[in-house]
Amino acid sequence: MARRYFGTDGIRGRANSQITADMALKVGQAAGLAFRRGDHRHRVVIGKDTRLSSYMIEYALVAGFTSVGADVLLLGPVPTPAVAMLTRSMRCDLGVMISASHNPYEDNGIKLFGPDGYKLSDEVETRIEALMDGDVAPKLANAPDLGRAKRIDDVEARYIEYAKRTLSRDVSLEGLRIVVDCANGAAYKVAPEALWELGAEVIKIGVEPNGLNINFEVGSTSPDALARKVREMRADAGIALDGDADRMILIDEKGRVIDGDQVMAVIAESWRDEGRLAKPGVVATVMSNLGLERHLAGLGLTLERTAVGDRYVIERMREKGFNVGGEQSGHIILSDYATTGDGLVAAMQVLAVIHKQGKPASETCRRFEPVPQVLRSVRFNGGKPLEDPAVAKAIADATARLGDRGRLLVRPSGTEPVIRVMGEADDQALVDALVGEVCQAVARAA
Fold first, then answer.
1. Interval 225-235: pLDDT, tens
2. Which of 24, 168, 170, 430 is most buried, judged by most C-beta within 10 A?
């Protein structure tokens, strides 16, 4: 059954058009009612990134939650993993992050976490949607039972200390020159401070948010500025976070991108050597490169694949007991420490390996040669282009031509009105041709 509001990562859309104050009010009321569990005073934490629209959504959510009798603790601009962590540590019934992650400032979104700090299941989200579309008036709190709201002042210090404790006390980053790009987003204060406290020389970019510049020509989806700065400053490595800092990519000393697949390979091999892997393998999505799968097999490790979305990676990790997982895009989940992707914590793990080995990032972090992979997006305006017979035929023909030499994946994005077409095989020319043919068919149907 198609859902009306939730996608693969919470609710997301154009601010004040799709994501309105009225919708946020309904989300607060519905989620507050869905997580009632007993007669105690219920509490909700709300964090946000630096978008201008986050203020509007924050106050609407506060109105929603307090109207159903929940107290609200406001965290201000903090990374998404800080919200997940504080939901648990402050014994709250629900956590909320206001963010559209890597999207431009015009978009915004709402991510929800249960009392265990994990993102909600499809079933719970469906229940919240039903409440949003229903009549909640009879369930609103009586005047004496309305919730209260207050701000928490020491959130940044709490998160920095948590992040540092994911490394052994004897680990230092002293001697490393690191450029950190915070995407003018939620981690603009905490990420540089945490790395500095670990002993690194820190050079900052993307740390001047004005409400309108989040992810604009900076951050994990626009790494060129970071690559230039790394080369200019002759840094040992660069870290690019996204708007809510739940994902990251690395830049080596030569200015080249190190994606999430390479990061998972580095961490998995390091943890295997230290006896820290809970299971002999890694969980990743169908988007991860075939080269990662081959590399892990050479180490005696498996690669478990899931649908796209870090939520599905986490569900598989919990189901089968893995403690390392993630996405090629840079969501890295280390379940020994976190219940969701954490860009800063993942970066610290890799920087610790670089420091320990004493080799350049270009050697330490390039564990395998990626199989040629092509990813393109085709925007569409309503309708269901993947149900078009011509598109189905183009996909079937391309899949048949690839055979067992590669993979083809065609899927709708869970966060944007686009169709993603990904192909990979050792033959670059073949992949380019097949992806192009499928994209043309989708574009004609769109």
1. 999 999 999 99
2. 24
Task: Assign residue 32 the CATH number of its domain.
Answer: 3.40.120.10
Cβ-contact 203, 142 below 8 angstroms: no
Instruction: Please determine, for residue 431, whether its predicted confidence score (pLDDT) is greater than 70.
Output: yes
Q: 339-358: per-residue pLDDT in tens?
A: 999 999 999 999 999 999 99
For 25, 34, 57, 157, the CA distances from 20, given in Å and listed in that order, are 9, 21, 7, 32
Cα gap 336→329, rounded to integer Å: 21
pTM equals: 0.90
Same domain? 276 vs 310: yes
How many structural domains are present in the chain? Answer: 3
Q: Point out which residues pair with 180 in neighbouring strands.
A: 204, 239
- Do the domain assignments include residue 420? yes
- 101 classed as catalytic: yes
The whole-angstrom separation of Cα 109 and Cα 79 is 14
Q: Which of 67, 99, 101, 329 is catalytic?
A: 101
Q: Assess whether 24 and 89 both reside in one domain.
A: yes
Domain interval for residue 50: 6-153
For the record, the structure tokens of 104 come out as: 């431009």
CA 111/CA 208 separation, integer angstroms: 24
